[in-house]
Amino acid sequence: MTIKFSQEKLNEVKELIACYPEGKQKSALIPLLHVAQDEFGGWLDAPVMDYVAELLHIQPIEVYEVATFYSMFNTKPVGKHLLEVCRTGPCMLNGSDQIIEYIKQKLDIKEGETTADGLFTLKPAECLGACGYAPMMQLGKFYREHLTKEKVDQLIDELRAKEKN
Amino acid sequence: MAIKLLLENDHIEGIRYYDTYRKHGGYRAAEKALKMAPADIVEEVKKSGLRGRGGAGFPTGMKWSFLAKPEGVPRHLVCNADESEPGTFKDRYLMEFHPHLFIEGLLISSFALGSNNTYVYIRGEYAWIPDILNQAIAEAKQNGWLGKNIQGTGFDCEIVVHRGAGAYICGEETALIESLEGKRGNPRMKPPFPAIQGVWMRPTVVNNVETLAAIVPIINMGGDEYAKIGVGRSTGSKLLSVCGNVNKPGVYEIDMTISVEEFIYSDEYCGGIPNGKKLKACIPGGSSVPIVPANLLFKTAKGETRIMNYESLSDGGFATGTMMGSGGFIVLDEDQCVVRHTMTLARFYNHESCGQCSPCREGTGWMYKILKNIEYGKGKMSDIDLLWDIQRRIEGNTICPLGDAAAWPVAAAIRHFRDEFEWHVKNPEESQTRNFGLAHYADPRPIPASA
User: Which of A131, B7, B315, B428 could be stapled to A90 by a disulfide with Cβ–Cβ 3.0 to 4.6 Å?
Assistant: First the structure.
């Protein structure tokens, strides 16, 4: 796979950089890493980070140190659907432990692992700011709230069905 | 009677869109403010007594008046929308459902501070909210409230929504500034304060979402009128996000004169505790503030009724009181385990420590490990004292307040629930299957009929 954005994405990159004062293009690093992660398979491989460094005219190390600091950037491959289940205080009070346990059994994986078919990764997360709608998980761009075992079943069936079509 | 300043139009369908918002009195405050001198706006905010709604409660007007104004150097307003304190989700609610109120507040504040380029740093996980904000920004621009020469005043303002990527520490203002510059979120040493050297070493004001939204009613009603709402130094209204074991979790606006007991049991707010269970403990201001047992929540140590405001909640200091914090109201019922809850918070702070200062980097890890041992039946009696010792050595010994935030919940849990920790150590097997229960810190009074 060649690491290069499409022209459309390059225009988006240009717009992102223009949000910040001249010479301060490094400010666009985190927004750019989001774009890159979405574009190149859900994680940031070294060549991807080098490419982002090149786009921003900064050193690769400046990208590595940021990518490894923020929990939303994956520096290792993940499954197609990343199930990030919150387990901090308020979610725990509402049964997030049981939800995590249920997903582990259902998909036969441990925390942080990916299913053999590469579809699902379970990643326990720390507080995602949906405490009143607990238990919850982040799936891609959106939150799934008020989780129950039935809702987890439904969600996983849905995603599997989507894959078959 | 509940007062509604921010959520006044909460029931109106389509308030998310410009036309509806405008029809219901939106941008009236901006109209008024743009005719005022910027210094007069700052003066109104000072008079209002508004205190930062992010958690620290620092007077906003005073923060604004510290902003340096050197010739020829751009100044910036940066909105802290990196809401990450466990238990807190009020800013999300404002941005998701009232984006124009937020943008109006941003515009007035930018005008008052002379910020032509204003940034909203939103936590990365709120991935769908930037779209909502950007749509509202585009609508505001179309109607002449943003962009060049706003409403013919000659004032230019652009708002950029900047997404973070999942780091609690970026809610600390200097870490947020570092992150906005495209770096790791390591807090800076102060001084220099952001008001002198902030983002790109330019003078910067960092304010919370709710703080900036509150500027709108302040301008509409005037600072003096706003200051009349509430009690003492807790002026205006405050958003609370309620979670844990209550019948009606969600976001509520209060005027800071309501008692804690009424807040929990009244049907207008939390609606009591599910299944008729008893209240065990509460963390009223986000996970960092001390947990208090039920018997210290409704009444202070002096026997006075505790009110939902900055002063009353902190009455008694950390010995018997707690804090208003960010307004993340977490309720624990009789079946909850304080040790386990504290363990999840310790894990959270360990995960979120930026690693810059040793007491926090190492200490949060030790606290998590020890709490995990106690929770899973591998604890020793001496571990409880060790935990106390570690938290004491973190507090006050770090660059930013994350160290304190990690230490306080552990300290308060041991202070008020020590017998529960001891019970875990003495009954390693039983504690795996059964909860310690209520003991002497339970709510001794009958539950009101409304629950």
Answer: A131
- Provide CB contacts within 8 A for B37, sequence distance 6+: none
Residue A41 lies in a domain: yes
Spell out the residues 6+ positions from residue B263 whose beta carbon is closer than 8 angstroms to its own. Answer: B240, B252, B254, B269, B270, B308, B329
Q: Is position A113 within any domain?
A: yes
Whether A106 is in a domain gets the answer: yes
pLDDT digits (tens, 9 = 90+) for B19-54: 999 999 999 999 999 999 999 999 999 999 999 998
Distance from CA of B307 to the nearest CA of A (A): 22
Q: What is the pTM of this model?
A: 0.94
Residues of B in contact with A27 (CB under 8 A): 162, 180-182
Look at domain B241-336 and name its CATH class.
alpha beta
Q: How many CB atoms lie within 10 A of CB B181?
A: 17
Q: Is the pLDDT of residue B343 over 80?
A: yes
Range of the domain at A15: 7-67
Q: State whether residue B368 sits within 8 Å of chain A by CB.
A: no
Q: What ipTM does the predicted assembly reach?
A: 0.95
Same domain, A107 and A159: yes
Q: Is residue A72 part of a domain?
A: no
| Number of domains present in the structure of chain A | 2
